[in-house]
Design goal:
By secondary structure, this protein is of the alpha/beta class. It contains 13 helices and 14 strands. Helix 8 links the parallel strand 11 and strand 12.
Length: 384
C-alpha cells in the first residue's frame, strides 16, 4: 500500500449528503501504512452517528477493494449538540432550535441571508431546515434551484424538499407558479402553523425561518407556536433601513426572543475585477444599533454580483463559491449564531409561555397579540 493508493481509494467515498468526497473536503488525516495495513483519521463536521458509520463502512470497503488487509478508521466528530432546553408551546417538537430571520422592511436580503446561513450551518455539520414563511412572496425555491419540484405527500403530511444539504418548504412549492393568494390575518396564522405541524421535518438541530418583512401576524404566530431560540435581523446600512430594523429588534425583545445578531447586508461593494471595496450605502452603520440592543453585527456582507446571480440561478454562493469573501463571512456568521444558540440552551433555553394568546375564545382580538388559534380555525377574527 502507498499513500497514493490509499488516497485514491478514499476519494471514492462521498461525504453523505454532498457530491464531494472526503479527500477533496480535506477530512482525511494522519494516514499510516504498515505493509497492507492502513490506519487514518477522518475529521468530520457532523455529529450524526449515521454519517460516521457510513463513511467508516465505505472507507473500509474501498480500501479492501484496493488491496488493504486491516483497516482502522478513527472518526473525529464534534460532540452532539445539547438538546434544546426550551419550554412552552412547541408544535414541531422534533426541531431542537428555531432561528427567526427578520427585517424591518422588504428587499434588504433576508431570503438571501436565510439561504446562505442555512447552508453554512449544514456545512458545519448541523442538521438544518429552511422554512420560507414569506407566504406573500416566497423566493426560497428559486434561490435553491428547486422551483420546478413539487413536494411528496405522505398521508396528510408533506415531505420537505432537499437541496444543498438542507430541508426546505415554501408556499412557492405548494402553489402553481405565478399564482398569488390574498392572505387574511387568520389564514397567515393557519399557514404558519401548518408549515410547522404538517411538514415532515426531520429531527433538526435548527430550523431557519425566513419571515415576511415587518412585524406582523406571521411573526407573532411563529413565536406563539414554537419556542424561538434566537432572532436574526437583516439590515442594509442606510439610515432609513436602520430605523426599520430597530422595529424588528424591538419585536424580538417584546416576544422574549434572544437576539443572535445583525447581518449588515449590501455593506460596501467589492469590485470583481480589482477586489477594491467601495462604500455605496455606507458601511458599519449598524454598529451603534447593535450596541443599543446589546447584540453584535455578526457579518458585513458586501454587494457582490455573484450573490445576486447565485440567488436568481439557484446556486447559493456559500455552496458554489465557498472560498469567496462573502461565503467566508456567511460561514463565520453561522458559527457565531450557533455559539449563541448553544449559550442560550446552556442557560436554560427560551420559554414562549408569556406570549401565548390570552383572549378568551370567541372574543375578537383582531391581529393584535391576543389573536388565538381558536379564532383562526373558525375562519378569522371578524375585523375588517
Ligand atoms: N449582498 C448582496 N449582493 C448582491 N445582491 C444581493 C445581496 N443581497 C441580496 N441581493 C439581491 O437583492 C435582492 C433582494 O434580496 P432578497 O430577496 O434576499 O431580500 P428580502 O429581504 O428577502 O426581500 P423580500 O422582503 O422581498 O422578501 C435579490 O435579488 C438578491 O439576490
Ligand atoms: Mg424574501
Amino acid at each position: 500500500m502507498t499513500q497514493e493508493i490509499v488516497k485514491s481509494a478514499l476519494s471514492k467515498v462521498m461525504y453523505p449528503g454532498f457530491t464531494k468526497d472526503i479527500v477533496t473536503f480535506g477530512f482525511v488525516k494522519d494516514i499510516a501504512i504498515d505493509g497492507n495495513d492502513v490506519s487514518f483519521t477522518v475529521d468530520i463536521t457532523s455529529s450524526a452517528p449515521e454519517v460516521a458509520q457510513q463513511i467508516k463502512d465505505e472507507a473500509i470497503a474501498e480500501l479492501q477493494r484496493a488491496g488493504a488487509n486491516n483497516v482502522t478508521v478513527n472518526i473525529k466528530a464534534p460532540v452532539m449538540p445539547k438538546e434544546s432546553s426550551s419550554r412552552g408551546k412547541n408544535i414541531a417538537p422534533q426541531v431542537k432550535n428555531f432561528l427567526m430571520v427578520s427585517s424591518g422592511k422588504g428587499g434588504v436580503g433576508k431570503s438571501t441571508t436565510s439561504v446562505n446561513i442555512a447552508i453554512a450551518l449544514a456545512q458545519q455539520g448541523k442538521k438544518v431546515g429552511l422554512l420560507d414563511a414569506d407566504i406573500y412572496g416566497p423566493n426560497i425555491p428559486r434561490m435553491l434551484g428547486v422551483s420546478d419540484i413539487k413536494p411528496e405527500v405522505n398521508g396528510n403530511k408533506v415531505l420537505p424538499i432537499k437541496a444543498y444539504g438542507i430541508e426546505m418548504m415554501s408556499m412557492g412549492s405548494l402553489m402553481e407558479e405565478g399564482q398569488s393568494l390574498i392572505w387574511r390575518g387568520a389564514m397567515i396564522m393557519k399557514a404558519i402553523e401548518q408549515f410547522l405541524r404538517d411538514i415532515l421535518w426531520s429531527e433538526l438541530d435548527v430550523l431557519v425561518i425566513d419571515m415576511p418583512p415587518g412585524t406582523g401576524d406571521a411573526q407573532l404566530t411563529l413565536a406563539q407556536s414554537v419556542p424561538v431560540t434566537a432572532g436574526l435581523t437583516v439590515t442594509t446600512p442606510q439610515g432609513v433601513s436602520l430605523d426599520d430594523s430597530r422595529r424588528s429588534l424591538d419585536m424580538f425583545k417584546k416576544l422574549n426572543i434572544p437576539i443572535a445578531g445583525i447581518v449588515e447586508n449590501m455593506s460596501g461593494f467589492i469590485a470583481p475585477d480589482t477586489g477594491v471595496e467601495y462604500d455605496i450605502f455606507g458601511k458599519g452603520t449598524s454598529e451603534p444599533m447593535a450596541k443599543e440592543f446589546d447584540t453584535k453585527v455578526i457579518a458585513e456582507i458586501p454587494i457582490e454580483p455573484s450573490i445576486r446571480t447565485g440567488g436568481d440561478e439557484g446556486k447559493p454562493i456559500t455552496f458554489v463559491a465557498p472560498t469567496s469573501e462573502s461565503a467566508k463571512r456567511y460561514m463565520s456568521a453561522a458559527e457565531s449564531i450557533w455559539a449563541t444558540i448553544e449559550e442560550i440552551n446552556a442557560n436554560g433555553g427560551v420559554d414562549n409561555q408569556a406570549v401565548q394568546p390570552t383572549t378568551p375564545p370567541g372574543v375578537s382580538a383582531c391581529s393584535s397579540a391576543g389573536a388565538s388559534s381558536a379564532q383562526s380555525s373558525a375562519g378569522g377574527c371578524g375585523c375588517s
